[in-house]
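2.7 Reproducibility. Because tokenized structures are sensitive to small changes in the input, we list the exact sequence used for LysR family transcriptional regulator, including any N-terminal residues retained from the expression construct. No trimming or masking was applied before prediction.
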Amino acid sequence: MSAINWRGVDLNLLVAFSALMETRSVTKAADKLSIGQSAMSHNLSRLRGLLDDPLFERQGHQMIATDRALELAPVVDQILQMVTSQVLRPGTFVPDQYDGTFRIGLTDYAELLFAPALFDAIQAAAPRSQLSFCNVDRNNYQRAAEEQKIDLIIGSMTDIPREFDHQYLYTEDHVCLFDPSATGLGSPIDLARYIQTPQALVTPDGKLATNVDNQLQQQGFQRHIAVGSSSFLTIRHLLTGRNLLCVVSTLMAKLDVFHDNLCQCSPPVHIPDFDINMLWLQRNAAHPRQEWLRRCVHHAVTERVEELRKLH
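Resulting structure tokens (single pass, no recycling of outputs):
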């Protein structure tokens, strides 16, 4: 490797060699590549020095290729074809032939809502692939994307850093969820009953307070957070048969997970809606595999949201 004059290696020389092999004429090769005859002669001289072989010898009006040139011709054609198809032009992604792994980062919320739909959509189109769901949250998704080689992320991330691209998926709102027989509550719930009822909180960061508590405090009220968990499934289990109320996202409340008789209604306090986005590392955005995955995921999520919103 150290003996090779890499500074003298120029892809243009391979293009010139290919043209000379095809035309067997410096003049015709120059015309084919739209360069001057002197430039083509210079390229031939550089090729001869680089490869230590005359390559082409003039006999009358024709240039005869040497044995070395004939040996190199198919190799050079293969190199040029590879550069054209695999380097200069992005390849096409064929999902039903892909046997690699898709890695999708999902918040607890997104995994519960969309994991089955994403699995079905990706497996239908890419049956030989593997799918890995990686749990992420607002605090760790940037690190997880790098360390776990995550292809894309779904969640309610805000203040997205510039190394990520993102696409808006939909906007989510909130409802109160409770067991009417255990709480004695009905719909609608007024502010007094809301404050009096012990509450469960889905809390990804472990804090037992939210902006709702700040809002209530400004109005001179305080609610009682009886229990918190980062897992919606845990909170959902706790609500059945207990005097507990929880404010959750509307789509979460519609999940048919437990076949119980919980009720839902609008909260008596203002809770801002939140956007759900799809994120991916900007440096990988143009890869055909990534482009296909984003289209597939966007379609699956959109269909699932529409399906859930039709449920009562």
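The chain has three domains: 6-88, 95-172+275-309, 174-272.
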